[in-house]
């Protein structure tokens, strides 16, 4: 039905205390197959690790070298949130390649999903908060470099501001960054996206959806992108341990349905549709079932609306 990047590398064991955030990457594909949202033929594994040439359109050479050689200064390594290791760096390179390959598939299938990705806290020269390399930024530059897109829109609806993405594209009119996030959430020092909507603690479904409805369709019409990236974090839920908004599972589902509907209705200046790449983003509710249900709803919305 639509291509989904899957990364077996996630099954590599992590130190105690770092396992829980990774479980969803193993369980979500199983859930999508079980409920019939996707079939085995929909899944693809990235063909390789992202090439240096693609990563370096976004990230500094010195930073990439420090990651690959495991020579990051100790304080910088601590900001990553995971212990720095070769397998962790390979994981991030594979995520980025999955997003690149998903973009190419989305040009034929309308939409492609990444079981991981949404590493929007990765800056040009450093990483933080579980993000080493910015997958959607790397894929944006890949599309532009290879003539697949000129104007790109990044729609980031994770509870945390996409601070790394904002920094990377802060002086670039060819990529429009839109982040709707919790005002009281990390990062506490925000960067400036092209459009930021900061929501107060406890924001409920009605308020969130009203803001989105009043913003997204007009934004797409004004920017007229050739390609859209969607970061669909489910840490907007009231149950999320790292979020401070107040949304329900139904509200999060309606968010995704509205976003994909807005993407589907948007007109491209010369093509029959605007391709969409969706990366999963955050989700840290105490019950893993809540996280999986919320992420599964994103995939159902993409299937029902865009396919």
TrEMBL record:
GO BP: any one term: epigenetic regulation of gene expression
Positions of the Histone deacetylase domain: 30-287
Pfam families xref list: Hist_deacetyl
Keyword annotations from UniProtKB, A to Z: Hydrolase
Source species, domain of life: Bacteria
GO molecular function annotations of the record: histone deacetylase activity; hydrolase activity
Database matches in SUPFAM superfamilies: Arginase/deacetylase
InterPro entries found in the cross-reference section: HDAC_classIV, HDACs, His_deacetylse_dom, His_deacetylse_dom_sf, Ureohydrolase_dom_sf
Family to which this protein belongs: Belongs to the histone deacetylase family.
Name listed for the protein in its UniProt record: Histone deacetylase
Organism placement in taxonomy: Bacteria, Pseudomonadati, Bacteroidota, Flavobacteriia, Flavobacteriales
